[in-house]
Design brief:
565 residues, alpha/beta, Rossmann fold, Hect, E3 ligase catalytic domain fold, three-stranded mixed beta sheet, 16% strand, elongated, DNA binding, DNA-binding, Zn_ribbon_recom_dom, Resolvase-like_N_sf, Integrase
Length: 565
Amino acid sequence: MSDWTIRQDTHTSTDRIVTVTDSTPATARAMPRARHRKGVPASAPGMRAAIYVRLSRETDETTSPERQRAACEALCEARGWDVIVVEEDIDISGFSRGLDRPGLQRILTRLAELDVIVFFKIDRLARSTVDFAEIMRLAEHQSVALASATEPLDLTSSMGRAMAKVIAVFAELESDTIGMRVSSAHEHLRREGRYTGGRVPYGYMVVPNPNGAGKVLAVNEGEAKTIKRIVERVLAKDSLMQIINDLNKAGDPSPGHTSRQTTGKRSDSKQWYTTTLRSLLGNPQLLGQVIEDGKPILRTDGLPLVNRPPILDTDTWQTLQDELERRANPGEKRREGTSLLRGIMHCGVCGERMYTFSGRNGQLRYRCIGPLKYRQRAAKGEEKQGVKCYGPTVAGVTTEEHVTEQFLAKYGHLAVMRMVQEVGEDFRPQIRQAEEALADLQKDRYDRGLFRGDDGAIRYAEQYAKLEERLATLKERQRTAKPGGVKAEPTGETHSEQWKRSDVAGKRDLLLNAGGYVEVAPARRGGKKLDTSRLAVYFGEEGHMRRAAAAKESEQEAEAAGSQG
């Protein structure tokens, strides 16, 4: 057992450790205290001591709390120090928590009441050189000594101060080594296809490993079926909101609900949301890949590690990502409203779009906003010549019913078709994947500081060469690949059936996809009911052409207004 005590000599501003024995002269025992406190002997009976005990895992018997406390108490008893406080941090890491440990903080807040802090070893007090230096600084400021019960140190010499730092460095290194062992163990388990804990991805479940110890992830057939059904509808151009509504009506548990149950944190919420759906469909875990910190874990050849059965094949996955990217493109977003004919109804006089408003008695009506826009232009001297529009209006509900009848009469009996990509040879996804892996490999070495030393350089060169070879092979195969085709196939329901199960946004999509375009002529005097002769309803190619022409005219007017402004 050691009797070394770290102290600050306020006269020489150097760290000192004094060996106190029964034969130590009284003059050598007296050490000056900080000027703002009364002098207290360096090691004398009656010194006020705090014992600090820390253990990362209470089950570790090699440095159990009892053993640490006994060693510290024995040192205090031998020196005649009075133990006024004992603080413990059990099941608390000294590395990950730093100085943010409850027991240590209670001691540091009472430094003015103490003369010495006693600990089993330096690594019990701090796991990093930075933390150790900070504790020494705080203690020295209050002229409080630091005493190790097991380590012989002498800070009065340069060699002694260096040894103290070396011990702290080795404590930090040991903590890093433990962390590396844990990470290495997890990586080994993942590469063996084993489950390492944490949130279970939607579409999978934890089962005993059929080939040995531990557990693995297997496909949850019920959830996988839900995923495939969702993907089919997305590729069939169904709106995400419509899909979400159907999932919630069916009571299918959301990924968040399922994952919280598997981790023991139960939730009664089964609701699906747009963010939930997008996160699920964009997660490479559907390909069986292992994701950590939002990125796939790579194999030694730089490609993503796959350690579980995939739910989607690569071609379907890439087609799905392309569709989601198309929908997320701001240039292709269309404002969703509650009106069925938004973007479809146009004024037959000026060609402007018609928007909904509440008429008398709160009835829904569509109105041309041309007059308002023309007044705004006139105020700027930009009035459009030759067109005088007084803003015709039309009843909303009856007009929507009329357009619906026209649509169902023309298309209701026809089967809904979806475009299906015929399987061809397309290596572009694998090429992109290899290019991304190559870029990540370069970042690992030059940005993240991995692959250090000679062995690291060799491993980096080997992985880089394998990736370059694979990339060259894929590009050559893509050059000679047979292209796939696109064909239309029925979804199994008619337009009438799809119309009935769709919400307003879904119905508007059906009208737009069919080329729906409606022109409204001015009303005759004295007319109270809807005069359907005012409505010119177009579908198919002509409807698409009219909408394109109207959109082009609006763009030209906007450009002209911008140039004049």
